[in-house]
Amino acid sequence: MSLPFYIVDVFADRKYAGNQLAVFLDAENLSSEEMQQIAREINFAESTFVTKLDRENNKAEIKIFTPAQEMQFAGHPIIGTSWVLMNKIFENSPSEIKLTVPIGGIPIDKTEDLIWLKAAQPKFWDVFSKEDFTLFSNLKVSDFENQFPIQEVTTGSAFVMVGLSSKRALENLVLDKDKADKWMREHCKTDHRGLYFYYLEDSKLFSRMLCIEHNQLVEDAATGSASTCLQAFLLKYHKPEFEIINYQGDYIGRPSQIYFKGKLADDQFDIKIGGKAQFVAKGEWEA
Fold first, then answer.
1. pTM across the whole model
2. Catalytic option among 46, 213, 219, 243
């Protein structure tokens, strides 16, 4: 079986930046096990598989896989897949489409060269102490900012939000893989476990996402799902309406820009993240 596929760089203002994504079409006859094998083979942070395509109504259903597991929701795969569908698959380059992932339908719209997704309502889970993080990192208590809690948040995929007091602390961050893995297994509520470190200074936001996959400490170039969690977190604790660019990936040579546009009113979160995508390649995959 031959599958058409596209490769794009997501949350990137130029090629060979941002987060890589492989988008596989005509995947309705693949099993989840086969999709997982392909995602492991290509070994990007995530790959997507289009399992249903409604060209007439600009709708699609997709499944999302990291090299290690299936994801219920993930931002950069949704943005990147939407770019491929809008620019390469659907006729007349529609400005709005509907993408369905395991957690449900995701409205997508395009404004100039930015593609935006609207996230689900967040859930705010456990709060943790700074001292926990000093046990498996090089951080000192003084390296943490004091305004907001350290808390696990989910909009479909869960991440622990960890605010730092300086860009230098973020840049110099080092984790002990085994101790961090043990802590996350003991404290995170889902099988998807990630730590999202961020530094907020006035109108500037910088971040790093680290997790454990296949017993390796992995840093992601641009994490849309974590960005929706961080946006919800900042709407709750920082201010109820704001727009900002989240800069991620600088420390692994894949600079990324994730656009935030959020609002909190009457206990309802309006969480939107946006980004650019760059076309890299297309081909046929022998499955």
1. 0.95
2. 46
